[in-house]
Amino acid sequence: MPWILLLLASAAMAAPDERLVEVTTNNLPGVVLDLRYATTNNITGKVLYPEAKAYLRQETIRKLRRVVRDLGEEGYRLVIWDAWRPASVQKELWKAKPDGKFLTPPSKISRHRRGTSVDISLADKDGKILAMPSDFDEFNAKADEDFSDVPQEAAKRARILRNIMFEAGFSGVPDEWWHYDLRD
């Protein structure tokens, strides 16, 4: 059965919406791709993407270029954990964590499925992933925007990331410091 899901995800990943563009270091210089759903390091414990490729709408990439530039001025690099997400993967995530506080039910079209959401983090200038308030998809109090229950350095980085994302035209969600949506 898992191979069928991988085959379905592979078909979806191979032919995303024509308005989507693959994220590369050519169109987003300095980006670090750490696509967790292309590994077992995610809430399902399964590989959900057959390839470690990220897709976003061109407008999302354009606004992320500003983020990359501004983060670089602060000594950081942008890490992308997830971008466009096929419906088959949304279903698998919902099976693992059926909680509308953190995930969009598969019956609705999430912004991830539109290519206008990104799950992100920070790396240092050499690409080493930095400690943040929580890990990706760690759905608990450490993931929220309060930051009072996490180390100060991690909170500082999350606030820098949040400010830069907001200035570039993204909005966040209060329960996931890593999730951002294109505002327009």
Overview of this protein structure:
The protein is α+β, with helices and mostly antiparallel strands and 184 residues long. It has four helices and seven strands. The strands form two sheets. Strands 2-4-5-7-6 form a five-stranded mixed sheet, covered by helices on one side. A two-stranded antiparallel sheet has the order 1-3. α2 crosses α4. The chain is globular.
Helix content: 25-40%
Strand content: 15-25%
SS-derived structural category = alpha+beta
Q: Characterize the overall form.
A: globular
Topology of this structure?
Layout (H helix, E strand, L loop, with lengths): L1 H13 L5 E3 L9 E2 L21 E3 H16 L2 E7 L4 H10 L20 E8 L27 H16 L2 E4 L2 E7 L2
Parallel strand pairs: 2-4
Antiparallel strand pairs: 1-3, 4-5, 5-7, 6-7
List keywords for this structure.
about 180 residues; alpha+beta; two-stranded antiparallel ribbon; 4 helices; disordered N terminus
Give me a quick take on this structure.
This protein is α+β, with helices and mostly antiparallel strands.
